[in-house]
Amino acid sequence: MRGDMDAVCRVLTEKDRFLIACHENPEGDAIGSELALALALRKMGKTATVLNADPVPGNLRFLPGAETVVSTEDGAGYDVAVVVDCGSPERTGRVGAELRKCPLMINIDHHRTNGDRGDLALVDPDAAATGLLIHRVLTALRYDIDPDVAVNLYVAVLTDTGSFHYSSASPEAFEVAGDMIRRGVDPWGVAEQVYETQSAGRLRLLGRVLGSLEIASGGRVASIATTRTDLSEFAEGKDALEGFINYPRSIVGVEVAVSFREEERGGIRVSFRSKGRVDVSAVAARFGGGGHRNAAGCTVPGTLAEVRRKVTEALEAVLP
Ligand SMILES: [Mn+2]
To answer: Which of 130, 171, 199, 211 is within CB 3.0–4.6 Å of 33 for a Cys-Cys bond?
Structure first.
């Protein structure tokens, strides 16, 4: 693991005021990681504020501490900024300016494209989730993990391994999940909250989006697309789309699934999921994005049709 665990632990022990942030459009690993860290720091008698550019997704609002996440805060007066689960601290979006007011920045992440920026960095691309890095930090601090921290860490690991489906589901992921269950996490209760709380509107939106399915490259690439009209017609936010991309990937013979979404401010948000033989982070990087080998994303200027064609061509070039 790149970085200095000892130095990070020293800062967490010695400093008092922490401003914690994650990337835009946060998911379970980002939210679980920052809440686990914030709750632990508060138990240690410190001030820890979680400042995010985007709200906590509806299915994660049950997480202990989620109600304390703020969308605005003055970074002045904080000792340390902690950025979690961000391939680059810029991915914190509009809250980045407040983070930069802090005299010290710690970067805790598992994305391969991490530029290692920040004064101190704990970056391990082999970690299944940033939540596992938070777990390592809390273990190094000899913090006795309580049920509220445990459920946040459990959700971080559960969601970033795709419920332990992905190849990233390491022995450490299972061990930490098992230990969190020992500490009071209820697996079915969590699964019900995270995965079985969708609205009827979201399911109808899924029907619409699946109608956009296109198969290309001799059956090896499957894509879906969501227009701004789709989202507004079903009165759903963009976080409703989380997980839709798993349907095209589940098609037999498909190597890469792609989801295209029209952005409010123009351009198309592109998400990739690979079954493992194609490194989609390399394809995303060609369009200025990044991510992991099996899950990556980028934002590409242009219309839906243009971007769909360009991205499919770029994928064609790297298919086995
Ligand atoms: Mn993550």
So the answer is: 130
